[in-house]
Amino acid sequence: MDEEITIINENTRNEKIKNFFINNKKFLLIITLSIIITILGYFSYQAYKNSHKERISDKYNSAVIEYNNDKKSKVTSLLKEVVEDKDTTYSPLALYFLIDNNLIQDKNEINALFDILINKTSLEDEIRNLIIYKKALYNADISNEGQLLSIIKPLISSKSIWKSHALYLLAEFFYSKNEKQKAKEFFSQIIDVENANQDILKEARKRLNRDLSD
Questions:
Q1: Contact 158, 129 (CB under 8 A)
Q2: Across the chain, how many H-helices and E-strands are there?
Q3: Whole-prediction pTM value?
Q4: What's the pLDDT tens digit per position in 20-37?
């Protein structure tokens, strides 16, 4: 008797499962197709990303080769394209190459390329912070107080590892202009930064004790 009941229950369960698939075959087909399309889309996107990055890498490497062949105009054009590609690896390298080799004289053009990296490229936070610092460093000799503070504000109001670098840059900026009280304020702030760079911390203390002591 128990065996018959078990068989009946199994048959009933199997029938319910069968009916579920029959009654919901359209819905299940849609779900299955959606999963397949999602998987194919993911792998297609990854393939596109890899291919796109490879093209940018080739463009960057071609620019370096052309620079060695003294074709600076072509190099500049290629590297600007790499920056505008907004690649997390090669776009910063391209801008640094342009600056280090003085390939663009127009400061506004360089700053526009900095802004592409800072505002439009999906960088890790500390990489973006480093680029903000490099932009401030690039502009330190040509900016007034307000302009420099505007560039570097995201760092001095953060807990970035580049905060002490930013404060030191501002302190030296004001010291070079003989605004010693402002310089002292920024050197003093470095002392209170928890993750301050040790070399910068040492230099800040040296400045305060040697040049700015009351």
A1: yes
A2: 10, 0
A3: 0.76
A4: 556 666 765 676 666 767
Q: Could you report the per-residue pLDDT of 72-118, keeping only the tens digit for each?
A: 888 999 999 999 999 999 999 999 999 999 999 999 999 999 999 99
Asked if 172 and 162 touch (Cβ cutoff 8 Å), the reply is no
Separation in Å, CA 46 to CA 1, 39, 49, 50, 58: 59, 11, 5, 6, 18
- Of 143, 140, 144, 156, nearest to 192 by C-alpha is 156
- Select from 119, 198, 132 the least CA-distant residue to 160: 132
> Helix, strand, or coil here: 49?
helix
d(CA 85, CA 82): 5
CA 27 to chain CA mean position, Å? 42
> Terminus-to-terminus CA distance in the chain, angstroms?
103
Residue 144, φ and ψ in degrees, nearest 5: -90, 180
